[in-house]
Amino acid sequence: MKDEARPVRVGFRCDAGAGSGVGHLVRCVALAEELSARGTEVVFLGEVRDSAWALAQLNGRGFTLVPAPAEPAGLAALAARLRLGAVVLDSYRLPEGTGAVLRKAGLPVLAIVDGDPLGQEADLYLDQNLGAERRPFHGERLAGAPYVLLRDSVRRLGRAAGGGRVPRVLCFFGGTDSAGVAPAWARALLATGRPFHGTVVSPAPFEAGGPITVIPPTDRLPELMAGADLVVTAAGSAIWELCHLGVPTALTWVAGNQLIGYEELVGRGVAAGLGRSPSLTDAPSPAASVGAGAVGVLSRLLADPAVREEHGRRGRGLVDGRGRERVADALLRMAGRAI
Q1: Domains, the chain
Q2: Residue 187 dihedral angles phi and psi, to the nearest 5°
Q3: Per-residue pLDDT reduced to its tens digit, 265-317
Q4: Which value, to the nearest 10 degrees, does the dihedral of the CA atoms of residues 173, 230, 61, 203 take?
Q5: Taking a C-beta distance cutoff of 8 angstroms, is the pair 76, 102 a contact?
């Protein structure tokens, strides 16, 4: 018999770190904020490595982080001890059978994916990527921009007024720049020869020179995005925040799973395309450089405010900021049925 008085506790199985990036954790935090605001207790299961910024995203919100075993059976046992009512999976590195084992143990599973679910079994899938609703998929799915997960720190912001003669440029590549490409894109901006005021976010400090200031990962990133005339970044989870804010964006891609989103956004004119980043290896060369074509795109964007703002206008209409509410509704309905 269902216990109507027992609140649902939701576990988020995801990791973050210098090698894997922080995008999975950031979008899980957005959904966790929504659930927590509704009185649902949340707990994160996994680890955060070599990223004080990522760990602060949990600690600052009072979200508990519990180490999680790698094997599915151990995770199911941990979920039982924690009395979880549902589990959210968001990782490319989990064993294929993780979702199946959790479901067999009676736990509803929501899997957050980017296209291919990589063999992960779930009761409900979420693919928030633009155009996901048009791609074939087997299983019950929430798909496309209406389900984008945005943090409170983004949803409460509006775009800062621009209009200055010298554009403000923000350059960042996730919370960890796991591919180490920030120096190459800083050099590309300088190679345009155009005037600008630049801020580059990088966990590894370097001397950029010229009008560029290099800063470490910061909780002020949403405010920096909202105040920028142009953002140079990769096609990761932050692109949806930029769309919501209507910030003109120039996109590259640094990992294969970002290519689908890159092609969709650039193809629709939502962002300017810079092509593949110069280094995709585990040990990127500090001498790697951006091609002349990408430098030319950046030059045109810096020179022409109208071209920049057209990209921002197209993005603004895609993400209404209520995606996490829709996902939370579906997740809690699913968890409620299983209690």
Answers
A1: 9-150+321-338 (3.40.50.11190), 157-316 (3.40.50.2000)
A2: -65, -35
A3: 999 999 999 999 986 543 445 456 788 999 999 999 999 999 999 999 998 88
A4: 30
A5: yes
